[in-house]
From TrEMBL:
Source organism (scientific name): Streptomyces mooreae
Gene3D superfamilies: NAD(P)-binding Rossmann-like Domain
One Pfam family it belongs to: Epimerase
Protein name as annotated: NAD-dependent epimerase/dehydratase family protein
Highest rank taxon of the organism: Bacteria
Stretches assigned to the NAD-dependent epimerase/dehydratase domain: 13-218
PANTHER family, sorted: NAD(P)-BINDING DOMAIN-CONTAINING PROTEIN-RELATED, PROTEIN YEEZ
Length: 318
């Protein structure tokens, strides 16, 4: 085993992305620590479980001690993001500046803001108009400024909306697949005839792990491997083929509570609803050209996702 494989990779955040990433890193032969506020109980065999509050300088430094690569996959309740995500950034960035570990950040499309259907590449201007979009853009500029100044080695991997095994809180997650399997209601947001990109959570993991293994990727934004966009109507038709029944679709032309998305979430999400009233098309060709990692075809993603939801106990599925 090489020295790189002996080195410790610390994954901050034990949600779907962090958990999938930790498993991917173990499969690649790395020593892995998975960190959350309480020691994760969903970590695969071979993963060190660690409890820390990485929004504090002390917690972040303890969480990454001994790591050569740190992956920031932390997320918080939607209504707390404006307050908490900058705190997490300050603590994590200070920690890697102290230890010298490389930092791989899982990022969103929010900094681009409304694109009016323009295909999003890494060269798309940042024109965020929402509070959360401007906040994410400010955080990203601080990450890249720290890299340019030589204070830290940082790379950002941007993902479209998640989909895949283990993904619940997504517009293509718990508001869709349980209803599809049981004959219940299935959510469609905004204009369901517009193309919308989704990133397979396993491709998120593979993409971040690849960035973690390639220091030459540092200092910029990359789009993680993302399958070609399809319309919500097309995706729903693909799900119907897999579950063997027509979907009872409920289309929300504007944000309101539905299924796992309660009023508190939807009130906060209202400023981001433009993502469902204009095309959201992500181009990840640069990642594939550079690293040879291709996105999972959408059909294969839906196969795996339906299988995962089908295997859930009925209570967990609802």
């Amino acid at each position: 085993m090489s020295a790189a494989e002996h080195s410790l990779h610390a994954v901050l955040g034990a949600g779907p992305a962090g958990t999938a990433l930790a498993g991917e890193l173990v499969r690649r032969g790395h020593a892995v620590r998975l960190v959350s506020r309480s020691a994760p109980d969903n970590a695969a065999e071979g993963i060190e479980r660690y409890a820390a509050d990485v929004s504090t300088p002390e917690g972040a430094l303890a969480a990454i001690r001994g790591a050569t690569v740190v992956y920031h996959c932390v997320n918080v309740d939607y209504h707390r993001q404006i307050e908490v995500m900058p705190q997490v950034q300050r603590a994590v960035l200070a920690a890697v500046e102290t230890t010298g570990a490389r930092l791989v950040v899982l990022d969103t499309l929010y900094p681009y803001g409304p694109t009016h259907g323009e295909v999003m590449t890494e060269d798309t201007p940042w024109r965020a108009t929402s509070r959360k979009g401007r906040m994410r853009a400010e955080l990203d500029e601080r990450y890249l400024a720290a890299h340019r100044a030589g204070r830290a080695r940082v790379v950002l991997g941007r993902s479209a909306d998640f989909v895949g095994p283990g993904v619940l809180n997504s517009t293509l997650g718990g508001a869709v697949f349980p209803g599809a399997l049981t004959g219940g209601e299935v959510l469609g947001m905004g204009d369901i005839d517009l193309p919308h990109s989704y990133t397979d959570i396993r491709d998120v993991a593979a993409g971040l792990a690849t960035l973690g293994e390639h220091p030459e990727s540092d200092g910029r934004v990359w789009h993680l491997p993302t399958a070609p966009a399809a319309t919500t109507r097309e995706i729903h038709a693909m799900i119907e083929e897999r579950v063997g029944r027509p979907l009872r679709r409920v289309v929300l032309p504007e944000p309101r509570p539905f299924g796992p998305f309660d009023a508190a979430f939807m009130d906060e999400y209202a400023e981001m609803f433009y993502q469902h009233t204009e095309p959201q098309i992500v181009d990840s060709a640069a990642f594939t050209r550079t690293f040879g990692v291709r996105p999972t075809p959408l059909g294969a993603t839906l196969d795996a996702t339906v299988d995962w939801y089908r295997a859930l106990p009925a209570g967990a599925r609802s």
